[in-house]
Specification:
By secondary structure, the protein is mainly α. The protein has six helices and no strands.
């Protein structure tokens, strides 16, 4: 499937050229950071390649030695902001590509979209049923705990309490003496 996606991305029109870097014109950008591309998009690059490259540039700008040493915080912050903005722009383009493909699919094969929706709804129902069963199990557990507590509270009320409770209980079982007449 990755091969099929790679072929689909190759037909993308070139995007707008990126803005100038924070450094001097024609310079290498912030010290220690990967410079942003200055020309139009390479027609051989795909959106996935650009997304990967922009992510790597973000990551590289965050772990560069100049960033760690903190030589010029404002310049570093500007470079990091530009790298993140480039990544977000390419991510939006990628999202638009997939939304366009989804729209094309819904127009060409509406039954496929309905099948996917039905499948998603079934999965959601299964997930919710499992959640209901989990809650019912917890409910039964706590009902049993409450019932056990209720039984424990009733037992002491039936039995007399106090230091002479045992004697009172034992004497209650002795038959009363007979009266002489």
């Amino acid at each position: 499937m990755a091969g099929a996606l790679g072929g689909m991305f190759a037909n993308q029109p070139p995007g707008p050229p990126p803005g100038p870097g924070p450094g001097p014109p024609g310079g290498a950008g912030p010290a220690g950071l990967i410079p942003p591309p200055t020309g139009p998009r390479n027609p051989n690059n795909t959106l996935v390649d650009e997304l990967e490259a922009s992510f790597e540039a973000c990551f590289a700008s965050l772990v560069s030695q100049d960033y760690v040493n903190g030589t010029d915080q404002e310049e570093i912050r500007t470079g990091v902001d530009q790298c993140i903005q480039k990544f977000l722009d390419v991510a939006r383009q990628t999202e638009c590509f997939f939304l366009q493909k989804r729209l094309q699919l819904s127009v060409q094969k509406p039954e496929q979209v309905i099948k996917e929706d039905v499948s998603e709804l079934r999965n959601e129902l299964q997930r919710k049923e499992a959640l209901i069963q989990k809650h019912l199990s917890k409910l039964r557990h706590w009902q049993q705990v409450l019932e056990d507590i209720s039984v424990q509270h009733k037992k002491p009320a039936e039995m007399p309490q106090g230091p002479l409770a045992y004697l009172e209980q034992a004497s209650a079982n002795i038959p009363a003496p007979m009266k002489q007449t």
